[in-house]
Every structure is written in structure tokens, then in C-alpha cells.
Amino acid sequence: MLRKLIATGALIAAMTAPALADPIEGAWKTQAGDNAMISSCGSSFCIKLTSGEYSGKSIGKMKADGNGKYVGSITKPSNGKTYSGSGTLSGGKLKMTGCVLKVFCESQTWNKL
């Protein structure tokens, strides 16, 4: 009986685990007015534009760094250059930053859709 209860509990936990998405995952409205989708890709989160002039273009990859912070790379779609990137999540807002040499940085605030 106990063995059956443990097996049932493990099955329920395995079925619900994929439903627990990281808060960064989902659809976002960029500061420029385009839509972007952030989704899990392995142990990272991949960022792809889903509307606008650069729709379909992958523009970044980040890993969770704890407490709503993410680090990785960001690609500027207009020139194709990739920069050191970071993201800070606060409620339904995501501040995305790309930097060259950690000195010259550009930031945008995205809103969750």
C-alpha cells in the first residue's frame, strides 16, 4: 500500500513539474513595439522575435542567475552583432541590457503579454 502511494505521488510530481515555467518564459512586448517569445531551450532561455521587421530572428540566450536576474547574450537584430546581455525581471516588466566591454550599454524595458 505504501509503495503504491509513493509511486502515485511520484507520478503526480512528474506530471506537474513541466507546468511550472520560469517567470521569464512567455510572450513579451519589446520597447520598440515588437513581440518576442522567451522559451526554455536546454538549461537556458532562448529569445526570438515573433513580429515586426525581424520576426523569426533569434536575438538572445540567457541563463537564470537567481532572484529574477538572467545573464547571457543579446543580438541586436538591425546589425546582427551579439553583445554581453542581462535581464532583470520585476513583476510583468523585464529590463533587457546589452553591453560592449561592460561599459557601453543599451537597455530596453519589455512588458509581459
UniProtKB/TrEMBL annotation:
The keyword Signal applies. It comes from Hoeflea ulvae. Keywords: Signal. This is DUF2147 domain-containing protein. Residues 59-112 form the DUF2147 domain. The keyword Signal applies. Residues 1-21 form the signal peptide.
